[in-house]
Amino acid sequence: MKLKTLLVATTIALATTGYAISETVGPQGETAVPSSTVIVDADKIEALKSGGFKAAMLWHDQSDFVNAVTAGATDEFKRLGIEVVATTSAGFDAARQRSDIETALAKKPNIILSLPLDPVTSAAAFREAKDNGIKLVFLSNLPTGYQHPADYAAIVTDDLFQMGKQAADALAAAMGGKGTVGWIYHDAAYYVTNQRDNAFKTTIENDYTDIKIVAEQGISDPARAEEIANAMLLRNPDLGGIFVTWAGPAEGVLAALRANGNKTTKIVTIDLSEPIALDMVKGGNVIAIVADEAYELGRAMAAAGARALSGDETPAFVVAPAVTVTSANVAEGWQTSMHVDAPKSVLSAK
């Protein structure tokens, strides 16, 4: 997910280190189902098209990721004849998100797609929509106390375990299956990043016995990434690789390596980023980026909302696939994730 420190942690009490996972589970322990299974039955489409239904997309922020999710949802709504009457960005401000909800309700949507910024605040903010029978589909987060299917149609997010596992597999392959690794994880109780980070650690420890995690450091403020990397490298100058929880702080880790003239320590991270991808295609420290299929997230969210309108229940927790992007497949990987071309700077540097 594209995270900022303003994103309030989900209330689930997961420790940020020390627990092993083997598959993606939801914020309340829900079993994951693949997004490919969330489809609107063909015999329901005509009724949806003639129903005059409307949808609102009330996002947490504006980014390339959100644009891709929006595109996936918009295309699915168009296919089903559902009009999008509002698309907003709260700028990671929970109060602004509540105002966005109130404004959208005046347009009488039948479906709302959103990422709740704060579990407690969002529970109150979405209550009027829920009480009015609007079908709620959430991206990654869940308001406190909400129950499926009475209060929401589905949570849709990434296959978190696969994202961490693929990051571990990519780094291990680049290191020849041996060496020492640093692990920079998200230092907050937020199930999305916790599962991704710990999946990396679990995979290294279980599958790559000749690779040792010799340095661990949590991070909550991406601005501290360069400082954290410098300290980690000072204690472990021969570090073979570093996992960084997402691309924002990975840019700081890359800056630290460059400042130290380090061309050998390899970086793997999560979420697409132009500066990170540019280093990767130029043969720098970055060897892989693991991304979600953001367009597919949006498609599945729209489909879950439409299914709810049709009286069809969707499982509570839905996950979209992960994709490992390397210098060899950066153009294809960007398209798979975002359904747009990779930045020109990245493509021209290959």
What report would you give on this structure?
By secondary structure, this protein is α/β, with parallel strands linked by helices. It has two domains: 33-159 and 294-320, Rossmann fold; 160-292 and 325-349, Response regulator (Rossmann fold, 3-Layer(aba) Sandwich), CATH 3.40.50. 41% of the residues lie in helices and 20% in strands. It has 13 helices and 13 strands. A seven-stranded parallel β-sheet has the order 1-12-6-5-4-2-3, sandwiched between helices. A six-stranded mixed β-sheet has the order 8-7-9-10-11-13, with helices on both faces. Helix 10 links the parallel strand 10 and strand 11. Helix 8 (225-235) crosses helix 9 (247-259). The longest helix has 17 residues, at 191-207. It is elongated, with a radius of gyration of 20 Å. The model is unreliable at 1-19 (pLDDT under 50).
Helix content bin = 40-55%
Kindly provide the name of the CATH class of the largest domain: Alpha Beta
Question: Gap between N and C termini, in Å?
Answer: 26 Å
CATH topology of the largest domain: Rossmann fold
Strand content: 15-25%
CATH architecture of the largest domain: 3-Layer(aba) Sandwich
Shape: elongated
User: Stretches where pLDDT falls below 50 for ≥5 residues?
Assistant: 1-19
Overall number of domains: 2
